[in-house]
Amino acid sequence: MMNYEELLLKRRSIRNFIDKAVSNEIIMKVIKESIYAPSSGNEQPWKFIIVNDKLLMKRISDEAKRNILKRIELNPNDYAKKYEKMLRDENYNIFYNAPSMVFIIGEKNLKNMKINCSLAASYFMMSAASRNLGTCWINFATDIKSSEMLSELGITDDFEIVAPIIVGYPAKIPDMPIRKEPEILKVI
Length: 188
Description:
The chain is an alpha+beta fold and 188 residues long. It is 37% helix and 15% strand. It is built from six helices and four strands. The chain has helices spanning 4-10, 24-34, 54-74, 84-88, 113-130, 147-153, and strands at residues 46-51, 100-107, 134-137, 159-168. It has a four-stranded antiparallel beta sheet. The chain is globular and about 45 Å long.
């Protein structure tokens, strides 16, 4: 078992996977550990949707790309503008052909839902890394607008996608990018 520092260094954003499925049993163990995350008021607002269907993942990718490109057309200053060329490439899959993905969603009406679901997502990614799995939070996948697709995924109007995370066996684990030193604004 790896120590904590090794785990921190091993958890990277993976965008290149070997062609090997991750069993639902392993994904369920990762999810089980992710719910150990803290949550405000112990609300535990997270819900999970596992997608192993590559054709559905491709359809989700295409839907998200269309919606982001529409957004860029309406607002050329949109942050996603820097990804426009990539998003226009019909062969580009926002999920990097990962074998699986997990949506972490939460109830819209809860005040701290996004923070709490983000904590669960962090635990998810660390648990996956401890099992030699790679993950990447794909924020583009929050841009699903199709009511039919949302329904197919089981996401009703009272829920919001917080963390779409791809998961698989990494082809390689990249080195950690250089980190800035922490800025301590004040010690009182």
